[in-house]
Known about the structure:
The complex is a heterotrimer of chains A (321), B (377) and C (297).
Chain A: H1 9-33, H2 36-61, H3 79-86, H4 88-125, H5 130-142, H6 145-155, H7 163-170, H8 182-210, H9 214-222, H10 227-255, H11 259-264, H12 276-285, H13 290-315
Helix pairs in contact in A: 2-13, 3-13, 4-5, 4-8, 4-10, 5-8, 8-10, 9-10, 10-13, 12-13
Chain B: E1 4-13, E2 20-30, E3 35-39, H1 46-54, E4 61-66, E5 69-70, E6 81-84, H2 96-107, H3 112-126, H4 141-153, E7 159-163, H5 171-188, E8 191-196, H6 199-205, E9 208-213, E10 216-221, H7 223-228, H8 233-238, E11 245-252, E12 255-257, E13 262-264, E14 277-282, E15 288-290, E16 297-306, E17 310-316, E18 321-327, E19 337-341, E20 348-350, E21 357-359, H9 369-376
Chain C: H1 11-54, H2 75-82, H3 85-116, H4 122-134, H5 141-150, H6 157-181, H7 186-193, H8 198-227, H9 230-236, H10 246-257, H11 261-296
The complex binds adenosine-5'-diphosphate (ADP) and magnesium ion (MG).
Amino acid sequence: MATERTIEDSSLGGRIRRTVSRSTVGDIVDRVVSRPLFWLLPAVLFIAVFQLYPMFEVFRMSLTDASQLTQGESYVWLENYRQLFNSERFRSTLSVTAIYSASSIILQLALGLGLAVAIDYGVRRGLRGPLVTRVVVLSAWIIPGIIIGLVWKIMLLETNVGVLNNGLGQLGLDIVPFRSDPDMAVISVIIAGAWRGTAFSMIMFYAGLKRVPDQLYRAAKVDGAGPLARFRHVTLPQLKPVMFVVTILVTIYSLNSFDLIFALTDGGPGRATEVIALAMYKTGFDSYQMGLASATAVVLLVITLTITAVYFVVFDVSEEI
Amino acid sequence: MAQLELNSLEKRFGGGDEQVEAVSELSLSVIDGEFLVLVGPSGCGKSTTLNCVAGLESVTDGEIRIDGEVVNDKRPEERNIAMVFQSYALYPHMTAAQNMEFGLKMTTGLSKGERREKVESTAELLDISELLDKKPKSLSGGQKQRVALGRAIVRDPAVFLMDEPLSNLDASLRSTMRTEIQQLQDDLDVTTVYVTHDQTEAMTMADRIAILYDGELQQVGQPLECYYRPENRFVAEFIGEPAMNTLPVERRGDRLVGSGVDFPVPDRASGGLSRGQFTLGIRPEAISLVEPNTGAVTGAVEVVEPLGESSHVYVDIGDSTVTVKTEGPKSVDRGQRVGIDFPEDRVHLFDPDSGVAVARRASIPNERPSDRTALTD
Amino acid sequence: MAGSTDTDTTPDSTRSRLSGSQIRLYFYDAATYLVYALAAAFFMFPVLWVISLSLRTEGAVYSALNLIPSDPTLDAYRTVIDSGILGWMRNTLVVTVVSVLGIILVTTPAAYAFSRFRFRGRRTLLLAVLGFQMISPIVIVLPLYDIMRTLGLTESHAGLALLYIGLQIPFSLWLLKGYFDTIPTALDKAARIDGCNRLQTLRYVLLRPVMPGIAVVAIFNFVLTWSEFVMAYTMLGPAGQDEYTLSMGIYLFDTQLATQWTNIAAAAVIGVVPIILFFVALQRYFVRGLTDGAVKG
Ligand SMILES: Nc1ncnc2c1ncn2[C@@H]1O[C@H](COP(=O)(O)OP(=O)(O)O)[C@@H](O)[C@H]1O
Ligand SMILES: [Mg+2]
């Protein structure tokens, strides 16, 4: 294709030179960019520094008497764990976490599924309202947890400022100690948590429901299945994979809850709402017992992983992965 | 314009236990301006071969020469090739013109104007000038394929590589595009390697076809050569539609005997046939139906598929079913007993183990295969 | 009762059954609307009420039930803005934008590699990434604080942004890899034939098709980072108040202003409204990030 061109010679030479240098430099670039490490390196570094190493550190620190107050640290091995399991505070923390998490999981999954079914039904029937409902519920999820905690704290105030107690007062009822009674405080935290967290399971369930083909429902109808039977025999089995994912994630979120409770009750009254994450944070940053706090973190991690493993068995997902 | 040579090309994927040999010991030479079709069933290594030639895959062993020069270690853009893909692979965010221009932009020092000029003249050649400003999303399958062709042609390469470029089109469009690509290639006179799994496409388009099976080259030759003189049983069965019938037979004296089959050993083959077991091959279009108990075999008609001008008749001869292609809409009925006869000169014999042809036609007749059936009746 | 037996021989009973199912449908529709109304009320009320509270005079806070304040005032907002909430918002915006850009910059090439390369250890690495996605950052906040202090990254917005990048990579990487997987590799091949090396392939050919995925990752991380509290509180805590992020500042307000409810409410509204608007405008992408990320994960 060496057609004569009216362009000056230098430009042609330039072109050739460019082609030549392109190919040698190109070869080097080629070689570098055809190694996956070139592409992965930044991500790997970030993960190593901010995830892998801290993970290793938290295990290591849990075996030491590290403290924010003193410089050095020495290995005390399982002493922190022994101390932890012998402490009244930790046991109460564990039970608060268990109650909070179990209730949250059940409540959020049930509410989320109910809302998702309502939204899916509305979309399939062409009703008005599903989108608005979805956006409203999801808004609750994206509000910073710390602000949610504050908002609920004000709503639950035990004076006339608190809108709930104000309302109850108008009905002639007594003040309800939403935040000052240990049991009520736990319930308050669970409800505020559900206010925030339901959106997540709702949207996940909704995504799962959307994937159920209309044909299946029609086929079930032809087979004479009523709405409840269709839900039981068509919808639920189709939702199983989503159910699995949602359950795991909601469990992880609940077990690791921090900011909302931090703002709403700060673990109080007393330690009535002190979940593990909160206890760990306070042990570490308020009491400066980094070793003990790390042991708490490890226990939290182990609990999370164990429960996840249990889900894997219970849901029997082996054929789906 | 260039000659393309593959010398003992080998390509293995993976390592250790999971190693897959996709192409083995492939030697092939495509002469300047030739249209070579690489054909074989899916998974036989056609795309891998093409990718090796293109420089998209590294070669495990052997060499690839373009115009005499070994290109094994060259990057694709240095090989002077262009490629067309089955799925078009048009860049979705670029217009047709930008798609065609992109390669020029990346590989040449041409100015914007020069590039535009080339794109426009290529578009004219392909009759897609009015599509140049459209994005792939708003093009039909046929239009996309033309743009993809344009993207290859505008590069003015020495070798065209096409990987099943028509497979995504519907049947009628496919046959139009078939002729069009042939004509284009004829006009441009660019060496072309065209991959397909469709033997009809191979037969109708190719100057020569290379049949690949399981990574190994089975036969290279002109389409009719491969049809009439297949070198082995695989080629015989792969080329031709409906597929060649094969029947196990045994030599007894000067006759070939199988289940229900009794046929004289063809003259041209008698010398080489010393062993006892063979596979007899006979094309459906070579068979004629005769009165029961005359001819080579007798059986009952199982199914008749009328195709208009001709019909496919499936005849049960005991252990196996023989396909017969007959003229006319409906010459026989289901369940009818018929005799089957075939001309001695159209019988193929294969070694039952290796599949190698031990007796095949001596030469290609003058007629095209489709005319041939007309004459047998 | 007799009319609703399940015999379907006479046309009469067919009609009555039809209208029966019609009635049932109306009933379900009504129940669904009721669910929508209850959900909207439950999930909107706290926000509306806090907005209402923020517009009240100090005296009006005790008539909590009047959603529309009788004597609305912006005093609370003035107080809150004077206390520097806009600075916190700017800090949050800077940290969020830098984090999101960083996440995309780091994640895109890695997602490309996981989607396009087949290398030894790929599966293991992918599973490790998935594993980290499952672990809550709160578990490692203690060592993170030490690391950040050692690296001199505490009390710094840049440091906090780096931390967010590090924490958000697994999720974003997983999500983005899924998007890359949906782009046919034939495009890569075509680009290679057209003379692109892998960098150019990513830049000129794949980036545009994968843009919707990048947008999802960006929007999702924007919301997460904007709302983040624990890490900010831990890493920026020792710094001066001017350096705080919005969540931190608002929390600090609560502890300092004790019972100035209108001011706290105003601060909460300022913290909530921008992110809600952002979300409502882009919720489609956000929802996709949420569902795709978890389902692919
Ligand atoms: N990247 C790869 N890694 C491993 N095996 C591959 C790869 N590409 C192709 N193969 C294998 O090589 C063989 C030939 O594939 P291919 O060339 O695509 O066949 P064809 O194009 O003829 O259908 C197949 O068995 C396929 O599974
Ligand atoms: Mg192929």
